[in-house]
Amino acid sequence: MIGAAIKECENATTILENFELLGFPYPKDLKFLLVFFFLLMYLLSLSGNGLILLVVALEPHLHKPMYWFLCHLSTMDMMVSSVMLPKLITWLILDNGVISFAGCVTQLFFFHFLGCTECFLYTVMAFDRFMAICKPLHYGTIMNHRVCFCLAVGTWFAGSIHGVIHSSLTFHLPYGWRNQVNYVLCDIPAMLKLACADTFINEMVTVIDIGFVGMACFLLILTSYIYIASAILKIPTSQGRQRAFSTCTAHITLVGIYYVPAVYNYIRPPSQDSFDGVVVMCYSAVTPFLNPLIYTLRNKEMKDGVRKLCIRKLQC
Questions:
Q1: pTM of the predicted protein model
Q2: Which residues pair with 98 in a beta bridge?
Q3: Residue 229: what are its φ and ψ, rounded to 5°?
Q4: Which residues lie below 8 Å from residue 90, measured CB to CB, with a gap of 6+?
Q5: Dihedrals φ, ψ of 302, to 5°?
Q6: What angle do CA 107, 37, 50 make, to 5 degrees?
Q7: Cα 314 from Cα 47, distance rounded (Å)
């Protein structure tokens, strides 16, 4: 197999114009249900996160740093869904996963750009909760409009640098005739298997970079919540403790949902496990749908905002 792959690479004389995403194996009689499921998840993700943006924009009492960052998270969720799900739905309907070389580069860039940006944003949101609960007297002064704007822009900028680095390293490699990507999208591990060169450096950069960024952000989040938990336990009334904790539970839940697929796909040793595709589909399809659901069900201010918006629409 290795000798044949090398021979294919040596015989390649033209530039590869497209790839073919092979997707995932599934019973053909479930095609309609799968199309319906992914289309439903996509529409619910767009509508749910769009609702959060609308509610925060229209409700003055939600014009706070916490909801400013939540709007950025909702925007990212809509973009994450759009990176993968439309192509996946098309593949299921037409049974054709062909994607252009430029489209593959774009998909990989945005997948890692948004994934890294989301990681940084969760860290910033944890810092915001730390300041609100542990330093309430200085919260308004420190987390002013300028600081919140700079933190939000910084997460997007850092994520874009991350995406540029990994897409450049991946597609700087030479590719031969083999263009069948045994995955549901153009992602680093799947693309490196098709490269006609030694990919050891790419694999090390992927593990070290993603591992370092992920671990550093996770430790900062964990440290923030250790201080937050200590501060909450010092609140004298149970009602006060419950109110303080309720502002953090949604964020903690989302961090857990984010880190499980990230660790499974990039930190562990690479494998040919077909479950890899299921994990990334859950991240791209289910997580963006769950984020607005979790925040609206577990956050009293958001529930009140949604209720006011519904009443206002009914009165019109």
A1: 0.89
A2: 20
A3: -60, -40
A4: 96
A5: -70, -40
A6: 65
A7: 18
